[in-house]
Amino acid sequence: MDETAKLALFEKAIVPHLNAAYNFARWLTRNQHEAEDLVQEAYLRAFRLFDGFHGGDGRAWLLAVVRNTGLTWLRRKSRDASSVEFDEQVHGTAGRQENLEERLVKDARIESLRTCVESLPAEYREVIVMRELEELSYREISAAAGVPIGTVMSRLSRGRTRLLDCMEAK
Predict the structure, then answer these.
(1) What is the pLDDT of residue 80?
(2) pLDDT tens-digit profile of 88-145?
């Protein structure tokens, strides 16, 4: 396939999933700027590897590339042992007008949940994010994470249990 046709197909199948890739990278990296860099690197890799894409779900395929790029990034990051604060404003949602007390309670719950999700080990955090935030099916998560569906289900169950325990402790 020539480069022009490859680019056109890439733009049609993969580029529409930029927001999902960024959201997933944001949860993996816990940093807006690093997530942007990760997504950029993942898209470059995805384009280079696009000849290996045989149709199907472009989002699951792209998230697998983002995941693999992110795991490489996390390994490099763990050697650094420095962490950066996660910025909740990126994931904030606009809602109905609330009074101050309701807003403070809601913000405290969101912060607790965010903290609990961030405290999960990477293998649980990634499947929770793909399932609950990106709404991928078990099959899509299995393909993106490169693990059997049973492992996806197990990690989701254990991750949800850990989230529940964490939220109850707060």
Answers:
(1) 64
(2) 554 444 444 557 777 777 777 888 888 899 999 989 999 999 998 888 999 999 999 9
Q: Residues 6 or more apart from 150 whose CB is under 8 A from it?
A: none
Q: How far is CA 70 from the centre of its chain?
A: 9
The domain limits of the chain are: 1-80, 99-170
pTM of the model: 0.66
Handedness of CA 4, 8, 14, 16 (dihedral sign): positive
For residue 47, give the nearest of 11, 2, 1 by alpha carbon.
Answer: 11
If you search the block for the tokens 């709404």, which residue do you land on?
135
Domains 1-80 and 99-170 share a fold: no
Q: Which residue has the tokens 């293998």?
A: 123
**Token digits for 84?**
């950066």
Angle at 81 between CA 75 and CA 82, to 5 degrees: 115
Cα dist from 2 to 52, 127, 146, whole Å:
14, 36, 29
Fold for domain 99-170? Arc Repressor Mutant, subunit A (1.10.10)
- pLDDT confidence of residue 87: 52
Amino acid at 139: R
With a CB cutoff of 8 Å and minimum separation 6, the contacts of 22 are 35, 36, 39
Is the domain defined by 1-80 classed in CATH 3.20.20.80?
no
